[in-house]
Amino acid sequence: MDPLRNPFSPGAGSPPPELVGRDPILEQTRILLGRTKLKRSEKSILLTGLRGVGKTVLLNEIERLAKAEGYRTILIEALEDKPLGPLIAPHLRTLLFDLDRMAGAGDKAKRGLRVLRSFIGALKVSVGDVTFGLDIDPQEGTADSGDLEIDLPSLFVAVAEAAEERKSAIAILIDELQYFTTKELGALIMAMHRIQQLQLPLVLLGAGLPILPGLAGQAKSYAERLFGFPEVGALSEEDAIKALRDPALAANVVFEADALFEIYRVTKGYPYFLQEWGYQAWNLAPGSPVTLQVVKSATETVTRRLDRNFFRVRFDRLTPGERNFLRAMAAFGPGAHRTGEIADALGQKVTSLGPVRAKLIRKGMVYSPAYGDLAFTVPLFDEFMVRAIPDFRL
Ligand SMILES: Nc1ncnc2c1ncn2[C@@H]1O[C@H](COP(=O)(O)OP(=O)(O)OP(=O)(O)O)[C@@H](O)[C@H]1O
Ligand SMILES: [Mg+2]
What we know:
It is built from 17 helices and 8 strands. By secondary structure, it is an alpha/beta fold. Helix 3 runs antiparallel to helix 4 (108-122) and helix 4 runs antiparallel to helix 5. The two termini are 46 Å apart. Magnesium ion binds next to helix 2.
């Protein structure tokens, strides 16, 4: 059928035609946004989930919600090896200028700019031209210690107080939070702790891989009392079918029931894969209805595409030793497996596999859902590993 009319949207952060199955999380967000404005404390929300489950899409939707509730928002994406300070400073600068321009009495926005000036001055790396236009004296003694865990809380408080003075509220949204260092996560957690104690109108909404709760807990043991970690996962069978059926119906196209079940069976309800299968099935179908036969040929196309792109880019970043480890792990199928079992399969000691395991966790390929367990962060990666290295002998 006409690719121009194709409603499906496979891609990183591409909004799906319909955001299915996320109502409980959106409701939790509405409560957080509403309560914060009323100065009632509520846990900040950090979404966690595997690659391609829809965290970025959800964070964008949450930003939209926050704006509709009257919040001023900042949306940033953490990157490997990019420090937090220089990443967030330019956004806070824009926000403080905005607050300063708003009508109202008080000088908290000006003070916020001075604190930001101090904060930037104490950063050990350059922030480009953020100081441009910041021809304001630093606030001596505030946010200028050079220790992020002291300076970031002072900065957040100054910004939130400026917002409060202007009867505004702030939502800071951060994607890929797992890329921050323990020190940076610790600073963010301490900043939010301070904000909660002072009941200031600032919320943090983040997203990251399933290792995030563990990292946050390592950074500060009280993180679990400050944050909720809702899991963004695969869609249920009913929701997965809805995610395919409804957008097609809106374009007067019907998927036959067995075609829908087949897509659910092969994708296991993972959002990114649902979009890929929906997209290819649409393009391959001569017309409505989309049949099981069409889906089966779409599976060949999609698998080839995923193996060449989505899975391949990750595979190419692995050393031979890491590939070997993952291939042995893949033999156990999807889900979590004991590191001990994998070591046994490779005929090695758990301790000698420690470095490979640590590297794979750092590369974001696997994570540990529970002590001694290991699982893939990319859905269906086990099946790919078996295809990539078919004649693997233990
Ligand atoms: N609720 C949903 N229903 C249907 N499709 C969805 C849903 N959420 C996301 N998608 C689709 O899934 C794909 C991946 O979404 P997104 O990029 O937000 O995932 P992610 O979790 O941020 O992945 P990554 O960890 O790789 O950044 C997109 O193609 C998007 O359209
Ligand atoms: Mg994402």
